[in-house]
């Protein structure tokens, strides 16, 4: 690029600071959203990896057990009989302090030192205080500060269904401390006593050679099994992959909208410099130099905007990581991450993406500039004429992209990437139709306003003349609104389905559950005592048990009777003799996600590991289940006892008699629960808590929806500002002919309303289509469940209000600038 051209470009952008700022802001916001989401996603996973490494140290295997864990006697056998020295037992659970949930980890400090010396070294006194002082725990300094705890102070904590008094013995220090936030360390005996898990361990961490691992596997009886440590991180990545990919796709929409805005900025810059570019061509600047010059400007804008976007993305990432972590913690597994881990490769990818998108968006304006030659006609007018001539081709290209996108969506695949690719292609194709749609809307409004005043007709005519430059700004706003509508419809449909599912599956009036997780059990005889209460009609016994099989991990829900299940509501598919099969020794229901992932249907079999060996269970039906994480298998209690033995009761569903005194019965249940270390909850409380978690889960999508709208708003503002500059002389003529500043404001206001109306109307079918893709394609592939799509009128009304409000707000400053224009100054060059 020649120096003359570079100086001309620099001078133009310096003399147009508002356009420059808005162009940079468009790029920065798009990059910031993408980088923030990626940083939050990767930080959450890296935090889990570092926490796993910090706890396990050099361990490369984990010894896991059945529903109750690993019998403690087996740890003794590992050390004494099998001579495995590098083995460390662990007991895991949850601890609630000051409204926050911590991961309680019981360790044997001396054994832990052989695998994780950095961890033992980070415990004050090498963990001696943990072993000698009762009811003591240790936390990182940051965790303790966040909870308002100090060393040596006693504090109440909720653990194992009871409120216990614990003491903070010291702070966990060392280089691994940041990865251990949210973890409370206790001596293993203390943790067992707090959680009520005497004689059982959660796992045993081991450092083994391949030969030792093979020999140990031959010794292990079912259900004990050996698992590589890497499998834990791999499973966490697999479980959260769909969630993280959904967030990534939403963030890429911001980058796509940013591309539209870069295109608009470059188009306006080329049009405003049309006479200058033509003059440079007359002075010997070649077409290739013009082309390279415009593309170079786009690259420079992208680099500067990306730099600002990286800084903004890091700041935004610190906020999003809390939302991502909270969602993963609610849905999948315990996770506490309070910092953002910066990845240079990820930041570099953000810059490369910005430059690539900016270059792609700048190619059409650069080709337009390449064709400019000295002429006497108005370049904006010529640009609009050329846009009209290319309109049929643009419509065909849009139709082709939409068709290809739909083909991608209909591919017989379960992969998410083709689905998102098809969605993006369809949105880009629809965006190419937007200038024609804007012209159609303006034409229809002009027919309706045929008898309106001059100002209205002038505004509508102006809109029709400038669709080539404002069309993509309308497309950007329409796509952002469509994303808000589509995601809003999906969330509303999802919430409605979850509410129905909760009411269908939670048939009891009260639920009594053992505290301490799925492995905890209620005391023997409590079912009989609950049944004897005056207001109780019947109880249903249940137990949740994690199990394994050749196809992965599952959770069995073993029910004492099928009375807690509504077959007409919860079952999606079933055999004709469904209940006969279910009540047999090997009949099961599988959840919809399990059936989708493994391609199972009623009548098929699913193999599961049992203490008696691997057994193929017959599938009686497929049930709806919207709980994330491992797949659910529903089994009758007799069948469970037949294959796993009597493992106690984990929870009771309590049905009251008609007309029973609910307050008296609830009081009696609370008394029983307090004496048994259990917790009792009313049906309504469980539903309320579940919906609270649901709403928290989608908090991050609400944030991303507003960020998308923010990017689109900037684009609309940039387009209106550029249009104001382009029309400055026309408005000066109008002022000279007697039009008042207030009338100029009315003209510009009418234009902005038309742009907002066109964007809002276009967003409705786009949003409905996006919602259909999310519910019928994305959700089944990502999570395995299906949703009945709902059409909430509030979402559509809100989209129109936001569209009109955003366009009006974006038009305020340009309208003010146009109203203040001086006719003499604007017409000075005429």
Describe the structure.
- Keywords: Cell membrane, Membrane, Transmembrane, Transmembrane helix.
- Helix content is 62%, strand content 16%.
- With 830 residues, the chain is of the alpha+beta class.
- The chain starts with a helix and ends with a helix.
- The strands form 4 sheets. Strands 12, 13, 14, 15, 16, 17, 18, 19, 20 and 21 form a 10-stranded mixed beta sheet that branches. A 6-stranded mixed beta sheet has the order 8-4-3-10-1-11.
- The model has no long low-confidence stretch (mean pLDDT 79).
- The protein is elongated.
- Helix 2 runs antiparallel to helix 10 and helix 12 packs antiparallel against helix 13.
- Among the domains are: 209 residues, no CATH class; 155 residues, no CATH class; 161 residues, no CATH class.
What labels describe this entry?
ten-stranded mixed sheet, 830 residues, alpha+beta, six-stranded mixed sheet, 30 helices
Residue runs with pLDDT of under 50 for 5 or more positions: none
Query: N-to-C terminal Cα separation, in Å?
Result: 32 Å
The count of strands amounts to: 21
Structural class: alpha+beta
The overall pLDDT, averaged over residues, is 79
Helix content: 55-70%
The major pleated sheet works out as: 10 strands, mixed
Task: Report the sheet-strand fraction.
Answer: 15-25%
Brief digest:
The protein is α+β, with helices and mostly antiparallel strands and 830 residues long.
Lay out the secondary structure.
Blueprint: H1 3-15, H2 17-56, E1 61-64, E2 70-71, H3 72-80, E3 87-97, E4 100-107, H4 109-115, H5 117-122, H6 128-132, E5 136-140, H7 141-147, E6 154-159, E7 162-172, E8 183-187, H8 188-195, E9 200-201, E10 203-206, H9 210-219, E11 225-228, H10 229-272, H11 274-282, H12 287-331, H13 344-370, H14 379-409, H15 416-432, H16 434-448, H17 454-465, H18 467-505, E12 510-514, H19 526-531, E13 536-549, E14 552-559, H20 567-570, E15 571-574, H21 578-582, E16 587-591, H22 592-598, E17 605-610, E18 613-623, E19 631-636, H23 637-644, E20 651-656, H24 662-676, E21 678-682, H25 683-697, H26 699-726, H27 728-736, H28 741-783, H29 793-819, H30 823-826
Helix pairs in contact: 2-10, 2-12, 2-13, 2-26, 10-13, 10-18, 10-26, 12-13, 14-15, 15-18, 15-28, 16-17, 16-18, 16-28, 17-28, 18-26, 18-28, 18-29, 26-29, 28-29
């Amino acid at each position: 690029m020649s120096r003359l051209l570079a100086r001309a470009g620099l001078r133009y952008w310096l003399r147009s600071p508002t356009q420059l700022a808005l162009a940079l802001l468009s790029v920065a916001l798009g990059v910031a959203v993408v980088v923030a989401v990626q940083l939050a996603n990767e930080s959450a996973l890296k935090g889990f990896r570092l926490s796993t490494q910090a706890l396990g140290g050099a361990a490369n295997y984990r010894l896991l057990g059945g529903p109750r864990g690993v019998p403690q006697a087996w740890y003794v056998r590992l050390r004494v009989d099998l001579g495995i020295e590098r083995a460390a037992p662990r007991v895991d659970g949850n601890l609630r302090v000051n409204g926050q949930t911590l991961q309680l980890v019981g360790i044997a400090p001396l054994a832990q030192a052989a695998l994780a010396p950095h961890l033992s070294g980070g415990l004050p006194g090498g963990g001696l205080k943990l072993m000698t002082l009762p009811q003591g725990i240790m936390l990182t300094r940051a965790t303790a500060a966040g909870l308002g705890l100090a060393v040596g102070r006693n504090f109440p904590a909720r653990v194992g269904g009871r409120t216990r008094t614990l003491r903070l013995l010291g702070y966990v220090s060392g280089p691994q401390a940041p990865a251990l936030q949210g973890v409370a360390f206790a001596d293993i005996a203390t943790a067992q006593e707090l959680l009520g898990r005497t004689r059982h361990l959660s796992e045993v961490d081991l450092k083994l050679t391949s030969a030792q691992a093979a020999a140990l596997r031959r010794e292990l009886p079912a259900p004990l099994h050996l698992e590589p440590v890497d499998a834990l991180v791999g499973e966490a990545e697999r479980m959260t992959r769909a969630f993280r990919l959904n967030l990534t796709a939403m963030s890429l929409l911001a980058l796509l909208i940013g591309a539209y805005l870069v295109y608009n900025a470059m188009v306006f810059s080329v049009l405003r410099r049309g006479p200058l570019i033509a003059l440079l061509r007359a002075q010997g600047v070649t077409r290739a130099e013009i082309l390279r010059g415009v593309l170079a400007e786009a690259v420079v804008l992208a680099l500067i905007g990306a730099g600002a976007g990286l800084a903004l993305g890091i700041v935004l990432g610190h906020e999003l990581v809390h939302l991502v972590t909270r969602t993963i913690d609610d849905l999948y597994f315990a996770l506490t991450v309070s910092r953002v881990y910066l990845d240079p490769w990820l930041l570099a990818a953000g810059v490369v993406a910005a430059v690539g998108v900016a270059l792609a968006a700048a190619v059409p304006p650069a080709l337009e500039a390449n064709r400019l030659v000295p002429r006497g006609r108005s370049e904006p007018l010529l640009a609009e004429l050329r846009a009209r001539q290319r309109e049929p081709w643009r419509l065909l290209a849009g139709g082709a992209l939409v068709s290809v996108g739909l083909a991608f969506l209909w591919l017989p695949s379960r992969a998410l990437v083709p689905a998102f690719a098809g969605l993006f292609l369809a949105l880009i194709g629809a965006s190419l139709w937007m200038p024609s749609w804007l012209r159609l809307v303006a034409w229809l409004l002009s027919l309706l306003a045929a008898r309106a005043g001059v100002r209205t007709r002038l505004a509508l005519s102006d809109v029709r003349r400038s669709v080539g430059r404002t069309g993509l700004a309308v497309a950007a706003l329409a796509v952002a609104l469509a994303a808000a509508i589509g995601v809003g419809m999906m969330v509303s449909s999802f919430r409605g389905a979850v509410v129905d599912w909760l009411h269908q599956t939670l048939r009891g009036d009260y639920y009594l559950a053992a505290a301490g997780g799925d492995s905890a059990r209620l005391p023997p005889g409590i079912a009989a005592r609950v049944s004897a209460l005056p207001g109780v009609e019947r109880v249903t016994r249940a137990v949740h048990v994690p199990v394994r099989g050749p196809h992965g991990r599952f959770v069995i829900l073993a029910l004492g009777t099928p009375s807690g299940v509504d077959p007409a509501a919860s079952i999606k598919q079933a055999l004709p003799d469904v209940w006969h099969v279910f009540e047999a020794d090997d009949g099961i229901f599988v959840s919809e996600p399990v059936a989708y992932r493994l391609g199972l249907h009623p009548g098929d079999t699913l193999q599961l590991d049992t203490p008696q060996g691997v057994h193929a269970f017959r599938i009686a039906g497929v049930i709806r289940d919207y709980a994330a994480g491992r797949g659910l298998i529903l089994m009758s209690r007799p069948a469970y006892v037949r294959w796993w033995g009597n493992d106690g009761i984990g929870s009771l569903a309590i049905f009251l008699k008609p007309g029973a005194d609910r307050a008296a019965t609830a009081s009696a249940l609370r008394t029983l629960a307090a004496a048994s270390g259990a917790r009792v909850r009313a049906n309504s409380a469980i539903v309320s808590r579940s919906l609270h978690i649901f709403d928290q889960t989608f908090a991050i999508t609400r944030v991303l929806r507003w960020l998308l709208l923010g990017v689109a708003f900037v684009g609309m503002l940039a387009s209106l500002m550029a249009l104001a500059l382009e029309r400055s002389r026309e408005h000066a003529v109008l002022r000279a002919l007697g039009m008042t500043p207030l009338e100029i404001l009315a003209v510009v206001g009418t234009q902005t309303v038309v742009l907002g109306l066109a964007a809002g109307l276009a967003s409705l079918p786009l949003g409905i289509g996006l919602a259909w893709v999310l519910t019928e394609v994305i959700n089944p592939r990502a999570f395995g469940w299906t949703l009945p799509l709902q059409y909430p009128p509030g979402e559509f009304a809100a989209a129109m209000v936001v569209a009109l409000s955003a366009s009006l707000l974006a038009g305020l400053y340009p309208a003010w600038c146009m109203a203040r224009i001086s006719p003499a100054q604007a017409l000075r060059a005429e």
